[in-house]
Design a protein that fits this description.
Blueprint (H helix, E strand, L loop, with lengths): L5 E4 L24 H4 L20 H7 L6 E4 L6 H9 L5 E6 L5 H16 L5 E6 L6 H5 L2 H5 L3 E7 L3 H4 L2 H5 L2 E4 L5 H13 L9 E2 L1 H11 L3 H17 L4 E2 L1 H8 L11 H15 L3 H13 L4 H16 L5 H15 L5 H14 L5 H14 L61 H16 L7 H4 L4 E2 L2 E2 L9 H10 L3
Parallel strand pairs: 2-5, 2-6, 3-4, 4-5, 7-8
Antiparallel strand pairs: 1-3, 9-10
Helix pairs in contact: 9-10, 9-11, 10-11, 10-12, 11-12, 13-14, 14-17, 15-16, 15-17, 16-17
Length: 496
């Protein structure tokens, strides 16, 4: 006897094909939620995922029952994973069993496999096992599937919102085809909203959805069609209760209790808010930066776009004043991909706080800009012979590598040597600031340039600036510099 943690769908054992309900799960009723009522009746009604729906593609084969391959569906909420499972459940004469990893255990999995094995031996229909939220299965629970998937006792259809390379064990992943579903774009969500308003399974044309309200629901969904349809159903109920025949923006806001943020992801407001966000961090106003971050998140801005801006900002506006800023921003970008919203807003907020309160320096921006300008102006001659690649046969005969001095052979770790092209010798692109950790670099850099370029030592201590060290070694009789610890103190105080 199978546990309550799972349910068998399709024809009962021994029943002829087609004896079960029309739907592979439970048939939608008049009082079913709108997202359930609006599930596609066939694969051609499926919206989005065009990259997986081409003729002969694994997803189409799975839905049409053309191949008994096991599949893992990976995608964000509302991208169609459960809908695809419904379509598979309705295909051909397969027995369909569904379970949730939230409630099922190893005992439940083994019960399904044993039943499938008995039916297979007696000539019964093949079994498709659908596991929702498979990433919540422990390693032991996933291990219990391996043999049955390997010999096709069951065809596994698993769904997950988590990266399966982290959440699914490698042996199971190697036995399945991984299909990656993308969040629906705004046009897809808009089309499904309009279908739900007009279709008899939905609102049946009983209400009109105003354009502003439609825009609000699309923004609110953020690519999650289930969220969009749930919000539409709530708005329709509110309009009906008010005796209105139209869902306007006020009704939509009242129904879902989220104000429509004036923010067009493709219009002026998008660029204005993004600009305010960047300038607030650059100006070290952490509170304003957090406001603009929240504004973008609530409006449904793509979190990956925000993360990319943070990574750019870390080098463009913080740079060498706090080299850890790039690490923090990059980690936040990875968290967006690995964790996803809404939890990833915590990672984004941490990165914004770090970047806004960090000491600022645009020296990296200015340096690469000046270098690129020279290259575009045609400056920069041949590579000096000593720096040319000397590893291939015949290179030495061409003089490649001749005279090259290996810096590690010098106790200071730096030697006099020409690295720049002839017409750029002595050009200073990088001009360090005195902010944060870059203060130590500003102290050390003049000494590095003097040694590399073979320049004489400055005549006076005042001309030399503060004492410095090169790669940790004292050079020119100066005292050991305070280095990163001094910069770190400045960074901690937020001084610039």
């Amino acid at each position: 006897m199978e546990s309550d943690a799972l349910f068998t769908l399709g024809e009962p054992a021994g029943a002829p094909a087609g004896a079960g309900g029309a739907d592979g799960f439970t048939d939608a009723r008049a009082d079913s939620p709108l997202p359930v009522r609006m599930r596609p009746a066939g694969i051609d009604e499926l919206v989005g995922q065009e990259h997986l729906l081409a003729p002969g593609a694994p997803l189409r084969q799975l839905v049409e029952g053309a191949a008994p391959m096991s599949v893992i569906l990976w995608g964000p909420p509302g991208s169609g994973k459960t809908t695809i499972a419904h379509l598979v459940a309705r295909a051909t004469d397969r027995r369909f069993v569904a379970m949730s990893a939230l409630t099922a255990g190893v005992k439940d999995v083994r019960a399904v496999i044993e039943t499938a094995r008995r039916q297979r031996r007696s000539g019964g229909p093949p079994t498709v096992l659908f596991i929702d939220e498979v990433h919540r299965f422990s390693k032991t629970q996933q291990d219990s599937l391996l043999a049955a998937v390997e010999d096709r006792t069951v065809t596994l259809l698993a769904a997950t919102t988590e990266n399966p390379y982290f959440s699914v064990i490698s042996p199971l992943l190697s036995r399945c085809v991984l299909l990656t579903l993308q969040a629906l774009d705004d046009d897809d969500v808009r089309g499904l909203l309009r279908r739900a308003v007009a279709d008899e399974r939905g609102l049946g044309g009983a209400l009109v959805l105003a354009e502003e309200a439609e825009d609000h629901l699309v923004r609110l969904a953020g690519g999650d069609v289930r969220k969009a349809l749930t919000a539409l159903e709530a708005a329709a109920a509110t309009a009906t209760a008010l005796g209105a025949g139209r869902i306007d923006l006020a009704v939509a806001e009242q129904a879902v209790d989220v104000a429509a943020v004036r923010y067009d992801r493709d219009g002026d407001a998008h660029y204005d808010v993004t600009s305010a966000f960047i300038k607030s961090m650059r100006g070290s106003d952490v509170d304003a930066a957090l406001h603009w971050l929240a504004r973008m998140l609530v409006a449904g801005e793509d979190a990956r776009f925000i993360a990319r801006r943070l990574v750019i900002f870390a080098s463009e506006d913080v740079g060498m004043a706090d080299p850890t800023a790039l690490t923090v921003a990059t980690a936040a970008a990875h968290a967006v991909e690995y964790v996803g919203l809404p939890e990833a807003q915590l990672n984004l907020a941490q990165a914004v706080i770090h970047l806004a309160t960090a000491p600022k320096s645009n020296s990296a921006t200015a340096a690469i800009g000046a270098a690129v300008a020279d290259v575009r102006a045609g400056r920069g001659g041949p590579v000096p012979r000593g720096l040319r690649d000397a590893h291939y046969s015949g290179a030495r005969g061409l003089g490649h590598g001749a005279g090259y001095r290996y810096p590690h052979d010098d106790h200071r770790g730096v030697v006099t040597q020409q690295y720049a092209p002839d017409d750029l010798v002595g050009t200073d692109y990088y001009q360090p600031s005195g902010h944060g950790a870059e203060r130590a670099v500003a102290t050390r850099l003049p000494l590095l340039r003097r040694i590399v370029r073979g320049l004489p030592a400055p005549a006076t201590r005042a001309e030399a600036g503060a004492p410095a060290a090169v790669n940790g070694a004292r050079v020119g009789g100066g005292e050991q510099a305070s280095g990163a610890s001094e910069g770190g103190s400045d960074a901690a105080e937020g001084g610039q």
